[in-house]
Amino acid sequence: MKKFNLICAFLVVALLVTSCKKDETITPTADYKDILSNIGENVILQTYEDLAAKAQNLYIAAQTLKNNPTSANLEGAKAAWVETRLPWEQSEGFLFGPVEQEGLDPSLDSWPVNVTDLNNVLLSNNALTAEFLDQQEGTLKGFHTIEFLLWSESSNKQIADFTSREFEYLVAAAEVLSIDAQELYYLWKPDGENFIKNILDAGNGSQVYISQKSALEEITNALIIISDEVANGKINDPFSQQDLSLEESRFSANSKADFTDNMRSIQNIYTGKFSTFGNGKSLSTIVGEKNSSVNTEVLQQINVAIAAIENIPGTFSDAVFNNPTSVQAAQTAVRNLQKTLEEKVLPIISNL
Amino acid sequence: MDKLLKSCFIALLLFGLGCRKEDEKTMIPESVMAGGDCTVFSTGPDAFTFPLPNLDAFGVERHFLADGIFGQQFVSAPAVQFGGLGPLFNQNSCESCHVRNGRGMIPQMDNDPNSGLLLRISLTGQNANGGIIAVPEFGGQLQNKAIFGTAPEGKVSKSEITQIVSFLDGQQVTLHKPAYTITDTYLPLSGNVLISPRNAPPVHGLGLLEAIPSSSIMALADETDTNGDGITGKPNMVWDILEQTFKLGRFGWKAEQPTAAQQAAGAAHNDMGLTSFYFPDEHCEGQTNCIDGTQATLDVDDETISLFAFYFQSLAVPAQRNYSDSQVIRGRELFSQIECESCHTPKHTTGVHEIAALSNQTIYPYTDLLLHDMGEGLADNRPTFLADGQEWRTPPLWGIGLTHVINPNATFLHDGRAKTMEEAILWHGGEAESSQKKYKNLSKTDRDNLIKFLNAL
C-alpha cells in the first residue's frame, strides 16, 4: 500500500514537471461498439447462460442425492457444485449491473454461512422449500450454504452423516440457486430485461452509461476490484491472520479453483473470449493499439497469476500454514496484475 | 476494494486539469470541484465509492479496511466470524441499503426483503433528552427481519395514492404518495403510533459536511424569519452520546445525529442489531422477542465501529459535469432565480477536521443542513428533538444527477415517493412552496434546463 502511494506521489510530481509542456491535440472519439458488444454478448451473457445451465444440473444432482442417498450420488452432487462454482467465479470479474442491483449477489454468494441459524432451521419443523428459503437472508442459502451441507465444516462428511432434513434443505437451496441463476441471465438477455442494452447503447441512449468510455471504465474497474478482492481479501485475510475461518471456500477445498477462475474471469473480459465464444475484440484491442507493451504485460501477468495459484501445493488451507512461500508468490502475482490494471490499463481507458 | 491507484490516477487527472492553458482554466467554475481537493472525476456507477484523493497513506489503508466492513454481511451469534447480527434487524450489511453507497430502493411489494427503507416509530411526546418516546415492545424503529427462531416485530405494507399536478403550460404529471403501514406484528401494536418512513440516503461526502463549522451553519439559521423572506432555517440540537451534551444535528433526514460516528453506530445498532460502545444494549432490550446469544459482550469492537464512521468520512464527492453546457448554465441561473438557494446553500468552507484531508476545503454541497417546514404533503408528523412533524433537514444535492446511474431503482425524498427530480420538486411545500410554484410556472424549456443543471451536479 505505502509503496503504491510513493509511486503515486512520484507520478504526480513527474506529471507536474512534464505535463504542461505542450497543448493537447484533440483526437476524434473512436467507436467502441463492436468491443462492447463482444464483451457483453460473448463473454458476460455466455458466462451467465453457462451458470444458469450448471445451476440447473446442480439442482438435479441434489434431487438425485435426496432420492437415492449413495456415496456415488454425494460425489455427483459435490462435482455439480464445483462445476457451477466455475462460471460463477468466472463472472466475478464483472460484478456490476443486475447482480448487484437486484439482491442477487447476496442470495447467490453470501459469506460466511449463518451456521447458528442454519442449525436452528434444521432443528425446527419449518417446511424446507424454495419458498421458505426465499424469505431468508442470503447467509442461509446460496453457494456456501450448499457447500456447508455437502461437505460440512470438517470437510469429511459421509453419506451416513446426512439427516433427511439436510437433504431437504440441500434440494431447496439448490432450487433457489438455480432460480437466481436463471433470473440473472434473464435480467441481462435481450429477450429478457435486456440490461445488456445499456452496454451496447453506452453513450447512445443507455440509462446507465453516459458514454462508451464510462462503460469501458466500469468494465475495467470491475477487473481491478476482483484482482484486489483475490489478492487482498480472499488470499490475504486467512493468510495474514493465519486463520482459516476467513477462507471462503474451505469446506470444499475449492479456494484455489475460486482464485484461478477469478483470474480467468479477468482473462475472459480482457481478451474478449469465453469458452468457444468471442471474437477477441476487447480491452486488449484498445490497450494493444495504445501501448502494445502494456498489453503484453497484462496478458503475461494473467498467466503468471494463474500459474502461481496452481503452483500452491495441496489445498490452500494446508499451504497457509505449511507452504507460506507459495501463497506469498501467488498473492504477489495477483497484486502485480492488479497494479498493472490500475496504473497502466485504467489510465489508457480513462483517456480515451 | 483497493482503489488506491485509482484515486492516485484521479489526483493525476486533477493535475492534468490544472495544466490547461490559462484562459481555459479560468473558465472552469469553482463549483465544478464540488468537494474541493476531495473531488473525484467519475461519472459511472462507482462515483460514490472512492476514497478522498488527498487522503494520506494510512488513511487510504484504513479506508479500504472500512470498505470491507461496509460490505460485510453479519450473521447470528455465536459465530466464528462476523457474529452479532440482530436478533432483530432490517438488513445484514450496510451495503444492502446504501446500494453502491447511493440511495436505497423502497419496497416494491409488501415486506420486500431487498428494500433499503425502514420505519421509525414512536409515541407522542419527548424523553428526558428531548428525543422520541419509544413504543413499548417495539422501540423506536420497526425491525422487519430477525435471526431464525425469533419473531420480527412486524411487516411493512405499502399502498399508494396518486394525485395529478398541472403546470401553467397545461402539461400534467402524476405524483405518487406511499402510505406505509405495519402489519403482522408479533404483539398488538397500538393504533396511535407515529410512523416515519426513511429511505437510505447516499453516504458520500459526509466527512466534508461534518467539517463545516457549526458557526457557519448557525449563521444561516433564521428561526423567526427576521428577514421576512418566508424561509426560517432551524438548527436541530440533538444529544451527543460521547460528549453527553446537546450538539448541532447534521445527519439523518431530520438532522438527528451530530457526528458521522454516532450516525454510523446508530445505523449499525438499529438497522443491523450490532451493539457497540456507543450503544451497548440491544435496541430491543427488554422485549420478549429479544433473545440474544451474546448479551455479555459488545457485538462489534471499538475499532470496527470507528471504521464504519471513517468510511463515511473518507468518501469523496464526484465533480460537477457539463458545466459549459448552455442549458446547464441557464438551469444554474434558474436555480438561483426561483430561490432554491434559500435552503440549498451552494457553497461552504470547511474548518479544521481531525482528518486533515477534509480541512479548509471550499465545497458545493447545496445544503444549509438546517430544518425547514416542508408542508403537510411531505410531513411525517413525528417530531425528533427540535424537528417538528413537518420539518426536514435540507438534503445535500451534490452527486444527485448520478442517482440512477448508481442505482436505477433509486427514488427521491425521505420515503422514496419521487421517481424523478421533477416529482421531488413538486412535493416541496411549506417554506418551499413559493419556489415550487415558481417552478410550475416556468416554461417547459426552462423546467428542463433546471433539471439539466441538477443532473449535472
Structure in words:
The complex is a heterodimer of chains A (352) and B (457). With 352 residues, chain A is mostly helical. Chain A has 16 helices and no strands. Helices cover 68% and strands 0% of the residues of chain A. The two termini of chain A are 28 Å apart. Mean pLDDT of chain A is 92; it is low at 1-28. Chain B is built from 13 helices and 15 strands. Chain B is globular, with a radius of gyration of 22 Å. Chain B is α+β, with helices and mostly antiparallel strands. Chains A and B meet through α1, α6, α11 and α16 of A and α1 and α3 of B.
Provide the spatial order of strands within the biggest beta sheet of chain B: 4-3-8
Strand content of chain A: under 5%
How many strands, which pairing sense, and closed or not: the largest β-sheet of chain B?
3 strands, antiparallel
Helical stretch count of chain B? 13
Rounded mean pLDDT score of chain A: 92
The outline of chain A comes out as globular
Order of helices and strands of chain A: HHHHHHHHHHHHHHHH
Low-confidence stretches of chain B: 1-25
The end-to-end span of chain A amounts to 28 Å
Helix-strand pattern of chain B, N to C?
Answer: HHEHEHEEEEEEHHEEHHEHEEEEHHHH
Please give the oligomerization state of what you see. heterodimer
Distance between the termini of chain B: 26 Å
How much is the radius of gyration of chain B in Å?
22 Å
Q: Helicity level of chain B, as a percent range? A: 25-40%
| Biggest interface and residues each | A-B, 61 and 53 residues
| Number of DSSP-assigned strands of chain B | 15
Low-confidence stretches of chain A: 1-28
Q: How many strands, what sense, and barrel or not for the largest sheet of chain A?
A: none
Number of beta-strand segments of chain A: 0
Would you kindly provide a brief summary of this structure?
The complex is a heterodimer of chains A (352) and B (457). Chain A has 352 residues and is mostly helical.
SSE arrangement:
The complex is a heterodimer of chains A (352) and B (457).
Chain A: H1 2-18, H2 33-67, H3 71-89, H4 98-101, H5 104-109, H6 115-123, H7 130-134, H8 143-151, H9 164-188, H10 196-200, H11 212-240, H12 255-271, H13 283-290, H14 292-310, H15 316-322, H16 324-350
Chain B: H1 4-18, H2 22-25, E1 39-40, H3 57-71, E2 88-89, H4 94-97, E3 117-122, E4 141-142, E5 145-146, E6 155-166, E7 172-183, E8 194-199, H5 206-210, H6 214-220, E9 237-240, E10 245-248, H7 260-272, H8 302-313, E11 317-318, H9 326-337, E12 348-349, E13 362-363, E14 371-373, E15 391-393, H10 403-406, H11 421-426, H12 433-440, H13 444-456
Parallel strand pairs in B: 1-11
Antiparallel strand pairs in B: 2-5, 3-4, 3-8, 6-7, 9-10, 12-13, 14-15
Helix pairs in contact in B: 3-8, 7-8, 9-13
